[in-house]
């Protein structure tokens, strides 16, 4: 049980059956695969004991069937007598559950020494046998050493003696009757010991609602707590840095940027902490919106911290800020404006002198804006008056990290979180449910957009054309990215690999069997690596004379910084890199992107990647190179991976893609990637499917928390939330 993660009776009761077998329906045996641990319902056709010719001992050979196919059962014993008890139970015509690891012997599938349970036989009396024969049979997530019905028996041992009063219910009685839900005690009986299919459905629906409700109650409490806190109001000033910044902006803001900007300006001016999520289409210009909010806070005498997920991105933000602010960002320097401020950079790898100066700038308040990576979270970082925390490209930061940074202010600072990619509404409600949401849907006018084409890797002519196209872009004065899933051909693991891991599981279906299993030969195909590809491209006649640079997570920060600067300046024309450029990198001259082994990336990730090109006025081109079966061909002959890429080629709407992506992945991966809290407690809830339940639970939970903020009247709900937070904290500790 420990191996299944079952340590307490509570764990056991929350170990829900994965499915239910109807005693009248046999399992289709055609789906069995060698090596799999299975539990099947089948009918015994025969069972014969034989003594063995070559060895001492006896063997029982049984055959079970689903009516069409057969599966063999093999038992060995010291002598025939040792096997008679099996022979007596395995009578032809009887139906039972059989469990074990599927093996193959001389071309037939078999289970060796399977654990089994004959329906209606292993019970005490006939009445019970009859009753049992008509009930749905719960099939639990089991293991080779612990059969489903042994789990079932253990659950009964725990559940049967319990009375209603022994099972405190986190869902208040009033809500239960309003929503037509049974009590927790009843729901547990329904899912573990159903008499009918309607029973387990009723129980499951109630437990699913409970998961959504507890999660939303936790989020509602976070919102309520934040709303009770005091924050320093940072009202806008007509003649400050923000006004100067706006005057220097080389473009006009989009309608969306203006609208969201006003929303933020109002909230920052209130003495309550803003708690807002800014999500938007890739390239919609979230950064500018955040910068303007930061400047409003600086104008009001406070400081702003901008937390970026990578050093490349942190450095880019500092460059952007300094460029846009000009002399306004050079306070205290010769030529700096009198009323200016400073933009400080804090990263984990900067030199001691630079770090000391940045720390001093932050602590003294001389720097109005401090940009950094995780290093900003370190204890030595102090602010004079931190008024706003901006978390860029949130998916790499957890809730706890947000809190760490906010704790650096004497009064709760305002908070703005930005997501890297558009996210579906249900995910926003679940993962970022403690935040209000603003959305930027339009991208600035004048962009020609990105054309996406799928290129079959095995087609030499297309590949030649691909590199020619890269050359043409470079000759037109533009830059190109070539993205690979790995760094080094000799090493299997690298910073690209975690993305792969996500994607391999990501394409997994409900049964939990992922694309890795189904496309085994494809999974073993060696993946293209940055260092190898860079060497190949340098030797390629089509790219002769083109400056090719490399960028990956294992390079020294200075080198990364230099390559990015070279790329922006045109000293590097083609950048071969891992997905380190995925998040937020902004080089407007970049027009072409070639993604190698594109099928190994998630849809949202590819959308994010291609968002790196076509940022200027010249049109972007994204070439997705893939060896996935049927890539570049019409859907009929294409593998699922190829179809996925085609979907991307045909869709430019990031919100639509995010929904497709979500359907293709298992929840855990999506939410895990978003580093949400309490996800380990989501067993039945699916954010793709249960949008209605989530929305309803959110309304209900908000009302409950409003009426009873401390949840004094519902101790079971408070306990459930605490338990969830404890799990969240554990997860956080694991990650760090
Ligand atoms: P994202 O929302 O993906 O983070 P960015 O903030 O990086 O997008 O902005 C993408 C690019 O668009 C940047 O080069 C930025 O300077 C530019 N940009 C932002 N707003 C506008 C606008 N209103 N008009 C023209 N260009 C803009
Ligand atoms: Mg960005």
How do the strands and helices of this protein lay out in sequence?
Elements: H1 9-13, E1 19-21, E2 37-51, E3 58-65, E4 70-77, H2 84-89, E5 95-105, E6 108-112, E7 115-118, H3 126-133, E8 137-139, H4 148-159, H5 173-179, H6 184-192, H7 197-228, H8 241-248, H9 255-268, E9 275-280, H10 286-299, E10 303-307, H11 311-325, E11 342-346, H12 352-364, E12 367-372, E13 386-391, H13 399-406, E14 414-418, H14 425-431, E15 436-440, E16 450-456, H15 460-475, E17 479-483, H16 497-506, H17 515-518, H18 520-524, H19 530-538, E18 548-551, H20 557-569, E19 574-577, E20 590-595, H21 603-610, E21 620-626, H22 640-650, H23 654-664, H24 667-673, H25 691-707, H26 715-735
Parallel strand pairs: 4-6, 9-14, 9-15, 10-12, 10-13, 11-12, 13-14, 16-21, 17-19, 17-20, 18-19, 20-21
Antiparallel strand pairs: 1-8, 2-3, 2-5, 3-4, 5-6, 5-7
Magnesium ion binds next to helix 10.
GO molecular function: ATP binding; DNA binding; DNA helicase activity; hydrolase activity
Protein name: Probable DNA 3'-5' helicase RecG
InterPro entries: DEAD/DEAH_box_helicase_dom, Helicase_ATP-bd, Helicase_C-like, NA-bd_OB-fold, P-loop_NTPase, RecG/Mfd, RecG_dom3_C, RecG_wedge
């Amino acid at each position: 049980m420990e191996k299944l993660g079952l340590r307490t009776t509570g764990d056991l009761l929350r170990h829900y059956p994965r499915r239910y077998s109807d005693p009248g329906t046999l399992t289709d045996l055609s789906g069995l695969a060698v090596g799999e641990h299975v539990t099947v319902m089948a009918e015994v056709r025969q069972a014969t004991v034989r003594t063995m010719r070559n060895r001492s001992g006896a063997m029982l050979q049984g055959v079970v069937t689903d009516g069409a196919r057969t599966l063999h059962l093999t038992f060995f014993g010291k002598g025939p007598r040792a096997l008679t008890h099996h022979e007596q139970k395995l009578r032809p015509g009887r139906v039972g559950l059989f469990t074990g690891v599927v093996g193959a012997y001389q071309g037939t599938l078999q289970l060796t020494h399977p654990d089994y349970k004959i329906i209606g036989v292993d019970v005490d009396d006939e009445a019970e046998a009859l009753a049992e024969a008509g009930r749905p049979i719960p099939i639990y997530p089991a293991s080779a050493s612990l059969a489903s019905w042994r789990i079932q028996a253990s659950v009964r041992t725990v559940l049967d003696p319990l009375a209603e009063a022994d099972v405190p219910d986190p869902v208040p009685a009033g809500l239960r009757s309003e929503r037509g839900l049974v009590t927790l005690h009843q729901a547990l009986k329904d899912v573990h010991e159903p008499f009918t299919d309607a029973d387990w459905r009723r129980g499951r629906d109630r437990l699913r609602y409970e998961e959504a409700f507890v999660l939303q109650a936790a989020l509602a409490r976070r919102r309520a707590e934040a709303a009770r806190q005091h924050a320093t109001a940072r009202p806008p000033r007509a003649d400050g840095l923000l006004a100067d910044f706006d005057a220097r902006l080389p473009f006009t803001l989009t309608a969306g940027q203006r609208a969201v900007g006003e929303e933020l300006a109002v909230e920052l001016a209130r003495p309550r902490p803003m708690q807002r999520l800014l999500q938007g289409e890739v390239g919609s210009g979230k950064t500018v919106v955040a910068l303007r909010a930061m400047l409003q806070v600086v104008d009001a005498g406070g400081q702003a911290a901008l937390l970026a997920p990578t050093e490349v991105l942190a450095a880019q933000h500092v460059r952007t800020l300094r460029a846009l602010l000009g002399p306004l960002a050079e306070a205290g320097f010769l030529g700096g404006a009198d009323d200016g401020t400073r933009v400080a950079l804090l990263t984990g790898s900067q030199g001691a002198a630079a770090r000391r100066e940045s720390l001093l700038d932050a602590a003294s308040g001389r720097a109005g804006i401090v940009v950094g990576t995780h290093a900003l979270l370190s204890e030595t970082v102090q602010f004079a008056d931190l008024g706003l925390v901006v978390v860029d490209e949130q998916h790499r930061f957890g809730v706890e990290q947000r809190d760490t940074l906010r704790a650096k202010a004497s009064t709760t600072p305002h908070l703005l979180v930005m997501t890297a990619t558009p996210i579906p509404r249900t995910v926003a409600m679940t993962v970022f449910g403690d935040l209000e949401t603003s959305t930027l849907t339009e991208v600035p006018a004048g962009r020609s957009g990105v054309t996406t084409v799928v290129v079959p890797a095995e087609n030499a002519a297309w590949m030649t054309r691909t590199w020619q196209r890269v050359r043409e872009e470079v000759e037109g004065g533009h830059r190109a990215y070539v993205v690979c899933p790995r760094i080094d051909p000799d090493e299997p693991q690298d910073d690209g690999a975690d993305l792969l891991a996500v994607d391999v599981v990501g394409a997994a279906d409900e049964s939990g069997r992922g694309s890795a299993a189904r496309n085994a030969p494809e999974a073993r195909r060696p993946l293209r690596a940055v260092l190898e590809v860079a060497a190949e491209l340098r030797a390629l006649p089509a790219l002769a004379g083109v400056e090719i640079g490399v960028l990956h997570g294992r390079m020294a920060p200075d080198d990364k910084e230099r390559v990015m600067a070279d790329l922006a300046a045109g000293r590097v024309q083609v950048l071969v890199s891992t997905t380190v450029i995925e998040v937020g990198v902004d080089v407007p001259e970049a027009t072409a992107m070639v993604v190698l082994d594109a099928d190994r990336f998630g849809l949202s990730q590819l959308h994010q990647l291609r968002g790196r090109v076509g940022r200027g006025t010249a049109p972007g081109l994204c070439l997705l190179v893939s060896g996935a079966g049927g890539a570049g061909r019409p859907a009929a002959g294409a593998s699922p991976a190829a179809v996925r890429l085609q979907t991307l080629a045909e869709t430019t709407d990031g919100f639509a893609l995010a929904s497709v992506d979500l359907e293709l992945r298992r929840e855990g991966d999506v939410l895990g990637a978003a580093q949400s809290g309490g996800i380990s407690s989501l067993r039945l809830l699916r954010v793709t499917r249960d949008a209605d339940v989530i929305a309803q639970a959110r309304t209900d939970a908000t009302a409950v928390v409003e009426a009873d903020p401390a949840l004094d009247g519902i101790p079971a709900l408070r306990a459930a939330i605490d338990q969830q937070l404890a799990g969240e904290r554990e997860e956080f500790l694991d990650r760090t």
